[in-house]
Design brief:
The chain is an alpha+beta fold and about 240 residues long. The chain is about 15% helix and about 15% strand. A 4-stranded antiparallel beta sheet has the order 1-4-10-5. A 4-stranded mixed beta sheet has the order 8-7-6-9.
C-alpha cells in the first residue's frame, strides 16, 4: 500500500490522511457490450498509476472538513440512518466533494482529487479484464447476507468485500462522484491514454452502486450522472491522489 502520514490510528474515521492503495498503470478494456448504450463501444484505454482511497470518505472525515471550513453540512447530516461516523458521507454535492479534496490537499501537502471515470473503472476491476463485478462474474446475490444488507442506508465502510487491489465497497454503498463531465457518447471519441471526459456538460459522472437501488452493487462498467449541485442520500465519494 502507498505510504501516508496518518495523524491518528489510520482506521476509518480516525485519521486526517485517508488510507490509500497504489493502482498500477494499466491498459484495459473499458466499457461493456452487456450494459447500457453509454457503456459502448468497448475500447482499450491506458491509465497511469495513481493512488486511490481504500474507503469511501466517511461521515467523521467530512465532519472534520465541515468544522475546519464552516462549510454547510450536507442534507441528512444528523439522520440516524446516515450519521454513523464510519458510514460514507452522503448528500455531498460534486462541489462539496471537490472542496473537500482541496482542503485535504492544503492541510496535508499532497494533491487529492476525485478520480476520473477511467481511473475508477480500472481500479474497480482490480486487474480482472472484462469481468462484470469487482469480484468476477457471479451476481451480487452471491454476496454474503445480500438480502438483508443496505436496508435503510449505506453500511460502515471497510467491513465487507474488497477487491484484488484491497479497495472496499467499490461498486456498493453509494454512488461515487468522478471528476469528469458526463457524455453518453464520449466513448466514441475518448482519448486512449488517461481519458478525462468531455470538455463540458451539464452533469457530472458518477460510478458505483447505491444502497437504495433494487440491485445494490453495480457492474464495473456501469455509468451514472447527475447535475453537480444535486445532493442525494445515495451519493458520496472517495478520493484519489497523484503519486
Amino acid at each position: 500500500m502507498s505510504e501516508t502520514v496518518p495523524l491518528d490510528s489510520g482506521m476509518p474515521g480516525e485519521s486526517v490522511e485517508p488510507r490509500m492503495v497504489r493502482i498500477p498503470e494499466a491498459r484495459f478494456l473499458m466499457g461493456s457490450d452487456l450494459g447500457q448504450d453509454n457503456e459502448r463501444p468497448v475500447h482499450r484505454v491506458w491509465v497511469d498509476a495513481f493512488d486511490l482511497a481504500i474507503y469511501q470518505v466517511t461521515h467523521a472525515e467530512f465532519g472534520r472538513f465541515v468544522a475546519a471550513t464552516e462549510r454547510e453540512k450536507p442534507l441528512n447530516w444528523q439522520d440516524p440512518h446516515f450519521s454513523n461516523p464510519d458510514q460514507p458521507v452522503v448528500a455531498a454535492s460534486w462541489f462539496d466533494a471537490v472542496a473537500y479534496c482541496e482542503w485535504l490537499s492544503e492541510i496535508t501537502g499532497h494533491r487529492y482529487r476525485l478520480p476520473t471515470e477511467a481511473e475508477w473503472e480500472g481500479a474497480a476491476r482490480g486487474g480482472l479484464e472484462q469481468k462484470q463485478y469487482p469480484w468476477g462474474d457471479d451476481p451480487p446475490e452471491s454476496l454474503a447476507n445480500y438480502a438483508t444488507r443496505w436496508k435503510t442506508g449505506p453500511e460502515p465502510v471497510g467491513r465487507a468485500e474488497c477487491n484484488r487491489y484491497g479497495i472496499f465497497d467499490i461498486g456498493a454503498n453509494v454512488h461515487e462522484w468522478c471528476a469528469d463531465w458526463f457524455g453518453a457518447d464520449y466513448y466514441r471519441v475518448a482519448a486512449e491514454r488517461n481519458p478525462r471526459g468531455p470538455s463540458g456538460g451539464s452533469r457530472r459522472a458518477s460510478r458505483g452502486g447505491s444502497w437504495r437501488h433494487y440491485t445494490k452493487v453495480s457492474r464495473c462498467s456501469a455509468r451514472s450522472s447527475i447535475p453537480p449541485e444535486y445532493r442525494y442520500a445515495d451519493y458520496g465519494f472517495r478520493v484519489a491522489r497523484d503519486g
